[in-house]
Amino acid sequence: MNEELQILNDWFKANKLSLNASKTNYILFRNKNMELNFKTFKLLINGSEIILVSKTKFLCILVDEHLEWK
């Protein structure tokens, strides 16, 4: 995943765009019955770690790890 993130970051730079790592996070989607019982990934963009979250706001919609939105 980190290799793919580096490719994505390189594409952003080549196209004069920026990726704000401090505003970037990731979600592991799962159903409600599934326990999160494995080690999480350490994802990096330009040396900054991307944080695992259980919910996030995307285009004014709050999405959680169970794909519920409000």
Task: Give a written overview of the molecule.
A hairpin with a 2-residue loop joins strand 4 and strand 5 (61-64). The chain has one helix spanning 2-14, and strands at 25-26, 43-45, 48-52, 55-58, 61-64. With 70 residues, the chain is an alpha+beta fold. The longest helix is centred in the N-terminal third of the chain and has 13 residues, at 2-14. The protein has one helix and five strands. A three-stranded mixed beta sheet has the order 1-3-2. It has a two-stranded antiparallel ribbon with strand order 4-5. 0% of the residues are buried. It has one domain (2-64). The termini are far apart.
Keywords:
three-stranded mixed beta sheet; alpha+beta; globular; two-stranded antiparallel ribbon; 70 residues; 19% helix
Number of strands: 5
Which sheet architecture does the biggest sheet show? 3 strands, mixed
- Helix-strand category: alpha+beta
Range of helix content? 10-25%
Counting H and I runs of at least 4 residues, what is the number of helices?
1
Total domain count: 1
- Give the H and E element order: HEEEEE
Q: Report low-confidence residues grouped into runs of 5 or more.
A: none
Provide a short characterization of the protein structure.
With 70 residues, this protein is of the alpha+beta class.
Element layout with pairings:
Blueprint: H1 2-14, E1 25-26, E2 43-45, E3 48-52, E4 55-58, E5 61-64
Parallel strand pairs: 1-3
Antiparallel strand pairs: 2-3, 4-5
